[in-house]
Amino acid sequence: MTDFDYVKKQISITDVIGHYVHLKQRGNSLVGLCPFHNEKTPSFYVSPEKGLFYCFGCKVGGDVFTFLMKLENLTFVEAFKKAASICGVEVSSEFENSSKDQVLRVLKEAGAFFTENLWKESGKDALEYMRSRGFSDDFLKEYEVGFVPEDASELVERLKRLSFSEDIIYKSAIFLNFKEGILRLSGRVSFPIKNVENEIVAFGARLIKNEPDSPKYLNYPDTLVFRKKNALFLIDKAFEHIKSLRKVILVEGYLDALMMHQKGFKNTVASLGTTLNPSSFKRIDKLVDRLIIMYDSDDAGKIATNRLLNMTDQFTCNLSVASLPEGLDPHDVLTKYGKGAMERIVQNYISGVDFRINLIFSNPSNTIESKRQKYRLAIRELQNLGAEEIEEFVKKVSEKLHVPESRILSDSERMSRKKISGEKIFYNLVNYFDRHILRTIIERPDFYFLLKSFDYSMLFNDEEYLQAAEEIFNMDSFDIDDNILDLSDKTKAKISQIILEDVPIIPDDQWEEILQLAWTRKNMFLLKENLSKDKDAMIEFLELAKKEKELSSKIARING
Hints:
It comes from Thermodesulfobium acidiphilum. Its EC number is 2.7.7.101. By secondary structure, the chain is α+β, with helices and mostly antiparallel strands. Helix content is about 50%, strand content about 10%. The protein has 5 domains: about 5-85, Zinc finger, CHC2-typedomain (DNA Primase, Chain A), CATH 3.90.580.10; about 95-225, Alpha-Beta Complex (DNA primase DNAg catalytic core, N-terminal domain); about 230-350, Dna Topoisomerase Vi A Subunit, Chain: A, domain 2 (3-Layer(aba) Sandwich); about 360-415, no CATH class; about 425-560. The chain has a 6-stranded mixed sheet with strand order 12-14-13-15-16-17. Strands 1-2-3-4-5 form a 5-stranded antiparallel sheet. Strands 6-9-10-11 form a 4-stranded antiparallel sheet. Helix 6 packs antiparallel against helix 9, helix 12 (about 255-260) runs parallel beside helix 14 (about 330-335) and helix 22 packs across helix 24 (about 490-500).
């Protein structure tokens, strides 16, 4: 048994999660208030037997290492060591000096290689592109912007000379195929993504010319040392300025953040996309008084801003919003209108409450139906507010809609009572079957191998459950204890969910009906396109619909 396997068996998910969450026994599970979102009714469940957790409120789930990685913004290695420490288990020095340091060294070498290439003939177009976007040569050098060439032979030789194993190089995610020398980000401008300690943990990249079939920006996959949701671009450069100014500006793009720094707004960081975990700010939250969110002014940016504001209770600092002119991003403002215009935008930030109010009342219409819609939106939004925001929000809604504050609070309370508590979750018939099938293939090796050789896609109606099944079937065999670490976070969450719901395994005598139902639904799906044109197709579809109803009734006893 390896040191890793030994330590893993000594780690108790109950002890680790109990270190952060007050858990109470409920049946075979433990339950508590979720640490990943604000809630008053417990919807966070832990299965000590299976070593899994799942929140029925925010849909986060997985094993003990997923929990620590998400909550503490840790790499896998750090989460492993943290769990071992909480459980009082010693980790050997061999593991301490494991993959993480070597992966960081590979990334450092790659970063140097990319930076060198920006100033070579191969990087000529990339350099011209960055200059055309308003960046000076000195700035590009200081911020280690690079170019990822098609020819990786020099980097391959460099890594071989330094005796890095193929396994470590693979774990760094630099290459799509190391043996063939195919780099993941080839042909793009590269931006090193660093941690607070100034270590490169990943790279971002942008196309030099927009190509219809290729994404403009390419993000790095999660690795031993990098978690996209927990990363902040330019935190290494911004950290001391953030501490000094006690204020941080958050934008959503590489070029936006870089231009903010070039123009003097050095307390700016960027999220990698619009999905962000509050734990990203763990190192700086208590060092600042205010986080100013300055996402793009498009719909995606507004939705992401609202999502982050809904997590206000997970921050110590105040959350505010700096609104950009419609259709412009920070880079546009700085290059078209200058530093003064950006200073006015940053200084004129508004509160989270005012941002929500502006969003709800953006439609100037005053029809009765429009007012009803705004009221419904306001009641729904009220569910997401922190305790200190409710009074101000209710007062402003009352003034705009001429509705008594007492009625707004009463309607909000009534909606809260209707919300799912997490104790009982209802599903439609479609993923009702998907859940049972997924539970069966992870618990029954005989059905795992049976379905692996079968066209199992016919059994799934929900794309997420199908993707989870595909991930599981891609393995030679599957055992929860041995293979859970090899799964994506999304699949871990699915498995955690169905186990903590105690979804029953499909009995042997139900499989014939299950397979018949799969074929029936598949044929109904194929017939749908021709219903309006083909009379025979309509007749066949109706017959299949009747058969589907009969089969569904039979299988419904699974949950009885």
